[in-house]
Protein 1
Amino acid sequence: MTHARCTPQAHRPPHLVAAMLCLLAAALACSTATQAAAVDAAMPKSAINASVGTGATFQPPPESAIPSDAFGKAIKLGRDIFLDTPKYAGRYIGNTLSCVNCHTDAGRMAGSAPMWAAYVSYPAYRSKNRKVNTFEERLQGCFHFSENGKPPPLGSKTLVALQAYAYWLSKGLPTDEPVAGRGYPKLAAPAMAPNYVRGKAVYEARCAICHNANGEGRYVDGQTVFPPLWGAKSFNWGAGMGSIKNAAAFIHANMPYGQSYILTPQQAWDVAYFMDAQERPQDPRWQGSVAATRAKFHDSKFSLYGQTINGKVLGDIGPPRQH
Ligand code: HEC
Ligand code: HEC
């Protein structure tokens, strides 16, 4: 039997760490450990696998090594935007998520799509937009979809700062070589097709304690403490996390927070399916109808956009909000 345990990360503003611990203590008072045990008991023992890890050995430089010149100023601004996107880049986003919510430990964590591994891997071809993307263009993608926003223009102070931060984190890494720790560790295909009902049980036992029973996260004084997984304040239908495959891999390696790899791969797939079967902001690449948008951008078994779940067509919420 394991209790949810919070590992505060070194690179988070201290007031948020305090708020997280405080909320967590309150949540633990009505422990869901019994529920978690019941969910685990339903799994065949053989399905519970050991930690897989990423094999990453690279260590990005410590914060204390940020130079104290103009370059250092840009790095610090990039770090600030990364840790508190609503505060430092609010006009470019349409939800309450910060980059760090999905790229944990200030974009340093191997297996959580870390910035150092990303930086040296661009320019790169992306099937998502069928062209070679610069790193700056890749940053715009996360603003557009994960942040449900309007991407900052190329060359803007915001993108230059984020680039400076990622460039600095990657100091010493060779370019143009595959980097251990990039993206998410590969997750084995599930033995059983991902399932809503099983996913809901995992969610209630392992996730709701922090992300809220309604999936909409928890806030203290308007600050996001536990980020929303769905609803109006979360990532939109075009985001990478909306792919069950990406979400399962992220969750397996990173969630519950501080308890990496505690879920079986099957549980990760099931809970990813459940999370991605919830309503969220419209895909900004909207083609005038859900069917047309699905046909053009979501024609994959990993996207539930346009599928009928519990009698409702997912994504059938009208055109995207204008920014
Ligand atoms: C809702 C979660 C979420 C948020 C918020 C988010 N991202 Fe991402 N990001 C992703 C996912 C998912 C990927 C794709 C990872 C993969 O394919 O392995 C990604 C990929 C990236 C990559 C490319 C990584 C690589 O190795 O190619 C960069 C760079 C990036 N994000 C930067 C940002 C920045 C900067 C912000 C904040 C402005 C941000 N992201 C916010 C989910 C998010
Ligand atoms: C102990 C609290 C806690 C638990 C339990 C937990 N999370 Fe999280 N989760 C977090 C925090 C905190 C973040 C943001 C990470 C950061 O900012 O460093 C996060 C981020 C996320 C994100 C990316 C951000 C977003 O809003 O989309 C997803 C997806 C996610 N969690 C899914 C899950 C799932 C699924 C479970 C259950 C298997 C789970 N989490 C359990 C605390 C928790």
Protein 2
Amino acid sequence: MRKTEPETGIIFLPGLCFCDTMPCSFLRRIFFCPFYSSFTEMQMPMIFVSKCLAGSRCRYDGGTNLVPAVRALVDQGLAVAACPEELGGLPTPRIPSECCGERVRNREGTDVTAEFEAGAKAALQIAQENGCETAILKARSPSCGKGCIYDGHFCKKLTAGNGVTAKLFLRNGIEVLTEEEYLSRL
Ligand code: SF4
């Protein structure tokens, strides 16, 4: 739960109550914490979010995957946004890539594993420097996807697995939610 208005106890962050001492699912619905005053010194960790979810046009085709609720986290100073593929040195727009086993290849067959791994490491560094314990990452992406990703044949078919950045975050103890999981908790 993020502290905001000491006088009123109004919570600015519906859907993300971290206090663990309250019936959080209930608090999410009423957006008000009657015991707020006892948490006035609490500072909750920043959240790492995929930059395209925050409205940046960093997607492979120059588009965005804007999710207003994720953008709001950044605007309120509750989240830090970054794009692992750009951090890894890939241009925008760029040729789309998919994971093929442990490698990542773009649609023209070029191996871009090194760029994806460099971007994942840079994203992890940003997350760790900001003390992030949770990340909201774009579903199905070869970098950011968690649980299922495109299968490497560029035919929109999914397979079980995690993107390169999601995998590194999970390995380093950062909880990863897709934007769909995050929205389902609001
Ligand atoms: S790498 Fe992640 S943040 Fe960047 S465009 Fe792809 S899904 Fe979005």
